[in-house]
From TrEMBL:
Classification via Gene3D superfamilies: HPr-like
Localization in the cell: Cytoplasm
Primary role: General (non sugar-specific) component of the phosphoenolpyruvate-dependent sugar phosphotransferase system (sugar PTS). This major carbohydrate active-transport system catalyzes the phosphorylation of incoming sugar substrates concomitantly with their translocation across the cell membrane. The phosphoryl group from phosphoenolpyruvate (PEP) is transferred to the phosphoryl carrier protein HPr by enzyme I. Phospho-HPr then transfers it to the PTS EIIA domain.
Higher taxonomy: Bacteria, Bacillati, Actinomycetota, Actinomycetes, Pseudonocardiales
GO biological process per UniProt: phosphoenolpyruvate-dependent sugar phosphotransferase system
Family annotation (Pfam families): PTS-HPr
Protein name as annotated: Phosphocarrier protein HPr
Length: 88
């Protein structure tokens, strides 16, 4: 299962607008994408509520993973968003 560790770049973390942007992109992937804080349980990245309850703040490391055909591209796409300041 491909996975990637990335640091949350948005100043508000994965909350509100950044969470909505990431969830929309994750839901559009051909495979289910999960995200977890280091040491925590993974949640579905396609849900805004799940992303907000993850409580991933600015500078936190998260692990993005997916399984199935197209998983590597899906992980890269979501990792790129999380590593971008979506509030800029």
């Amino acid at each position: 299962m491909p996975e990637k560790r990335v640091t949350v770049a948005s100043k508000v973390g994965l909350h509100a607008r950044p969470a909505a942007t990431v969830a929309k992109a994750a839901a559009a992937q051909p495979v289910a994408v999960s995200i977890a804080k280091a040491g925590g349980d993974p949640v579905a990245a396609g849900s805004v509520l799940n992303l907000m309850t993850l409580a991933a703040g600015y500078g936190d490391e998260v692990i993005i993973s997916a399984e199935g055909e197209g998983a590597e591209a899906a992980v890269e796409a979501i990792a790129e968003l999380v590593a971008t300041d979506l509030d800029a």
